[in-house]
Specification:
The protein is an alpha/beta fold. The chain is built from ten helices and 15 strands. Strands 2-1-4-5-6-7 form a six-stranded antiparallel beta sheet, with helices on one face. The protein starts with a strand and ends with a strand. The protein binds adenosine-5'-triphosphate (ATP) and magnesium ion. Residues 36-37, 303-304, 328 line the site of magnesium ion.
Length: 356
């Protein structure tokens, strides 16, 4: 699967037009603030139905305009995705059919996005690591996506009840039961997924470090997955604390991933370089996992990560990525020039074709 063409109208600072892509490595380069990330954002939007950098889709509408159109076609026109954004609605069409739920979009275009903040995956808080899990699993399984949505909806309802002044706490068990049902399904998915990517990530990490370091990533659920009574019992046990804190303190919204290098927790004991290598290995492992599950490579979007890596890691990244890759960077590194990739210069919202 690869994207052949992206068309856009009134998209942020971009001049109305199209971006033609090849099936291998595509490089979009240019100075800061020219529109490179805006192009990747549009591709991500077509795959996931939202932006990777804002929750407010209206920001994509060009200043002074009332609507934005994004249209994406994959090779052989296998898949056509259209997005129509106005101030009050977001419409998404897959092969001319308007979708009703975002879940219907997932899986049509598989993407892995890699931004500089992903290099801090190991160092940062658990929120980023949960997003890391969810982004792949939602694309691979509609059931996961729907269960996750229902879990968070129920969690909100439970939290609203906990926040109420004159609350009747006797009904809380209804939410607990639902949370436990969805939560346990999600835990199983997460457990299997992390076990799978651990195998890939540890090989990649070992390759980058010439076998000097051993990486291990482990699922660290908030509720012990083998515990009898599971999440439901933990919710009941912690009810008093939840009432006091006015929020739900147990469940999959508190899950994490434990990352160790040579047996030591990387977040606490790893050097910055080790943490970044581990993050890179984790990100790359998702590409291999998607390939294993779907027998095709996802489209990899690399937004400005090259400048953040040393030459050794840059080269490793390039040689290990298969399938369609779209890279943005400010300067074109010499070794990229040598490789004769398709390059496009982005300047003031316009795309200029160049051969290296
Ligand atoms: P960098 O190398 O710094 O990451 P970039 O080329 O990735 O730069 P983009 O993030 O794509 O830059 O943004 C380009 C420009 O788009 C910014 O200058 C921003 O002000 C402009 N912009 C953002 N939203 C809108 C909008 N809704 N309408 C018009 N212009 C916008
Ligand atoms: Mg950018």
């Amino acid at each position: 699967m690869f994207i052949e063409k992206l068309e856009f109208k009134n998209l942020r600072n971009l001049e109305d037009g199209e971006l033609l892509l090849n099936e291998n490595i595509n490089i979009l380069y240019g100075d800061n603030a020219q529109g490179k990330t805006n192009l990747l954002e549009a591709i991500y939007f077509a795959a996931i139905g939202r932006s990777h950098r804002t929750n407010n889709y209206k920001e994509l509408i060009k200043f002074g305009e009332t609507e934005t159109l994004i249209s994406l076609v994959t090779f052989n026109a296998d898949t056509r995705i259209k997005i129509h954004l106005t101030k009050n609605l977001k419409e998404i069409y897959v092969d001319s059919f308007k979708i009703k739920k975002l879940g219907e979009l997932f899986g049509n275009l598989l993407v892995v996005i890699f931004s500089p903040e992903d290099l801090d995956l190991v160092k940062h808080g658990p929120n980023l690591r949960r997003k890391f899990i969810d982004l792949t699993l939602c694309q691979l399984s509609k059931v996961y996506y729907y269960d996750l949505g229902l879990y968070y909806k129920t969690l909100n309802q439970r939290n609203n009840l906990l926040k109420k002044k004159d609350k009747d706490i006797s009904t809380i068990f209804l939410w607990d039961e639902q949370l436990a049902t969805y939560g346990e399904k999600i835990m199983n998915y997460r457990q299997n997924y992390i076990k799978e990517i651990n195998e890939f990530a540890s090989i990649i990490h070992s390759d980058i470090t010439n076998g000097k370091e051993t990486l291990e990533i482990l699922y660290k659920p908030n509720v012990n997955i083998n515990l009898q009574g599971g999440l439901k019992e933990k919710l009941e046990k912690n009810l008093e604390r939840d009432i006091l804190l006015k929020t739900t303190t147990s469940g999959i919204h508190r899950d994490d991933i434990l990352v160790t290098i040579n047996g030591l927790e990387a977040k606490t004991y790893g050097s910055q370089g080790q943490q970044r290598t581990a993050s890179l290995a984790m990100k790359l492992s998702t590409v291999l996992h998607i390939h294993k599950e779907k027998e095709l490579y996802p489209i990899v979007l690399l937004d400005d990560v090259f400048s953040e890596l040393d030459k050794n890691r840059q080269e490793f990244l390039l040689k290990s990525l298969k399938g369609q890759v779209i890279i943005t960077c400010t300067g074109v590194e010499d070794f990229l020039k040598d490789l004769n990739y398709d390059m496009k210069k982005i300047k003031e919202g316009k795309i200029y074709e160049q051969r290296s």
